[in-house]
Amino acid sequence: RGQEAAYSEETLDSESTEEYNWRNQYSSQRQYNDAQQWNARFQEIKLYQAKHGHCNAPRSAGKIGGWVNNQRHQYRLLQEGKQSNMTDERIQKLESIGFQ
After folding, report:
1. Which residues touch 10 (CB under 8 Å, ≥6 apart)?
2. What is the residue range of 37's domain?
3. Where are the alpha helices (DSSP H) in 1-100?
4. Interior CA angle at 56 toward 55 and 57, to 5°?
5. Residue 62 gets which letter from DSSP?
6. 57-75 pLDDT, tens per residue?
7. Which of 23, 38, 39, 40 has its CA 20 to 30 A from that of 89?
């Protein structure tokens, strides 16, 4: 009977560790994908800025317009002390191309 209890605890510990590892790996992969997507959109806004002389892509401009709006929203959240995916590095990149 004692062995069954020990086995059950060991199994639970093993499953908990596997779930933790899976969640950690998933989180890391998601962060990587988010960074890749952000960098791709940043390249798009650089092209937009070069063509139009500004970074104020309207929502009607498609995905880049929505992305621009989202960057402003994320910046406001950061300024308000709320959870945001805006980082100092992203702010510097955006400011380097005249994004406001």
Report:
1. none
2. 2-96
3. 2-52, 63-79, 88-96
4. 95
5. -
6. 999 999 999 999 999 999 9
7. 23
> Which pLDDT value is given to residue 99?
95
Q: Are 75 and 91 in contact (CB under 8 A)?
A: yes
Helix axis angle, 2-52 to 88-96, nearest 10°: 10
User: Into how many domains does the chain fold?
Assistant: 1
* Position 32 confidence tier, pLDDT thresholds 50, 70, 90: confident
The C-alpha atoms of residue 14 and residue 91 are separated, in whole angstroms, by: 42
How far apart CA 66 and CA 40 sit, in angstroms, is 14
Angstrom distances, CA of residue 96 to CA of 42, 43, 74, 84, 99: 11, 12, 18, 20, 7
Classify residue 57 as left (phi > 0), alpha (psi -120 to 50) or beta.
Answer: beta
